[in-house]
């Protein structure tokens, strides 16, 4: 739901505690709520000890890959011989995902505080927060919060800057984001070297998602053991997570639950279930880049890193897209393929050609001009697009196509057999 | 955002000062490229070849390099656009909630007619964009810097009137 909304009794409210409360946006209001205490304590603690606490909490990256945050921080050189950087990934462009926007709109200081703690932990002097260009309101709010915090001197010697993106989904990929800050086209870099070795300006860099960093002050304030205790199903998945739910539910919006929470309860209880007279048909649980789940898989899925994999998909960014029985899955899969075709940076042949081709074939099927071989061709192309490119955008395009054909084949066949009237695909 | 004759340098006075503040942050001048382009677009409404050459000059880059970057990003306008530049998300999550209808209504009621074209009165350019990161509030629409959530076909007339 949009905020303010009363939290549902099944939500575990940590990150979203002050969503909807404009006073928490101000420096004074944030301090009144215990803000910047975690940073003050961290600055008085050895960097390695801060890294250790985050490691112990079990916090994993909320940007999509779920990499353990403390471990990532520990990859940074311990001996400081060159400048170190923190990059904050506020590019949030994955279809279905709109949680970082809410964090920046309501609790910008949580992000700033978490980022400054990260900077101390990895001995960085500069934090660059890269915000997608379309996020005009989150930018304005975060900019104001930064000015207030800066004026209060809370960051000590750490410099925090905002950097505006200019419209390119691929800049959410970590090395593309660094290139973009450097004033280049947003092309992902070949890894290794990894950012901890050569990141922004070739210097050791740690990059984290907004939600990951916003959790850090809570962990320092309440302890790693408390955070680790927030876990409903698998001990490898700890803490709370914001799930953005969109599409065909009664109350779309952001909901915060403990990892391991049943997807079924999120959709039926918190979001009010399908629209009147409709039933759930399919769900993409982790942003558009992960495989589609059927209704049965959705209703059995537990929302943590392991649970969603066991159901046949991935937790990704926690962007949950819901499709009801009115949905033409072929059309929506075409729209997703078209998204990736539009956003491919075109460096890799498999991605550049594959995203464009699969989109064309899907359009052809929808227009009633598909051939029986087209489904095999789509699967073939998808295989070629998976695991062979510089970044995983190419794989992301293949995921909904492959899972869609496997699970909703009847809908494709109906177009191919002429049993369904063609749709315009302008 | 006004479309003016683009002959005068843009990096003077306060705009130059704003650029210099950015230049002070990073170890390379090149890192000020995206911010410089934003500053120029805010002043001129779009990025002309002349502005690209000026940005190149100020940052010690070549005009061709600057053009290569400008064309990579979708938010820099390489042509003048209408006074109200409207971006409508039509990616899948918004699509299933009626975004195509919202786009169509906006094109009709602003007089812009075709996506990407500017209305005859020069007031409106409406384009279709990919996910705006607000999928739970379908359909999000950006009018210049105003981010408007939950636009429906029924709400389009009032929205257009507000900016007219
Ligand atoms: C194509 C692509 C787009 C991505 N977009 C985003 C994004 O918008 N926001 C984000 O935080 N991570 C995004 N990621 C993941 C980042 O590369 C990176 O893993 C993340 O910022 C690391 O932060 P975390 O460990 O805190 O999750 C994207 C990855 C790929 C391959
Ligand atoms: S996979 Fe696609 S988006 Fe990623 S680097 Fe290659 S061409 Fe670019
Ligand atoms: S799909 Fe429309 S805002 Fe994300």
- Helix count, DSSP H or I runs of 4 or more residues of chain B: 7
What would you call the structural class of chain A?
A: alpha/beta
- Give the neighbour order of strands across the main sheet of chain B: 2-1-3-4
Helix content range of the residues of chain B, please? 40-55%
Compressed to H and E, one letter per element, the order of chain B equals HHHHEHHEEEH
Integer count of domains of chain B: 2
- Our Rg estimate of chain A from Cα atoms comes to 22 Å
Second-tier CATH architecture of the largest domain in chain A = 3-Layer(aba) Sandwich
Bound molecules: flavin mononucleotide, iron/sulfur cluster, FE2/S2 (inorganic) cluster
What's the end-to-end separation of chain A, in Å? 32 Å
Which CATH C-level class of the largest domain in chain A is it? Alpha Beta
Mean pLDDT of chain B: 95
Integer count of domains of chain A: 3
| Proportion of beta-strand residues of chain B | 5-15%
First-last Cα distance of chain B? 15 Å
Largest sheet properties of chain A: 5 strands, mixed
CATH top level class name of the largest domain in chain B: Alpha Beta
What features would you highlight for this structure?
heterodimer; A: 426 residues; alpha/beta; Rossmann fold; Ubiquitin-like (UB roll); de novo design (two linked rop proteins); 3 domains; 5-stranded mixed β-sheet; B: 164 residues; alpha+beta; Glutaredoxin; 4-stranded mixed β-sheet; 4 strands; binds flavin mononucleotide; binds iron/sulfur cluster; binds FE2/S2 (inorganic) cluster
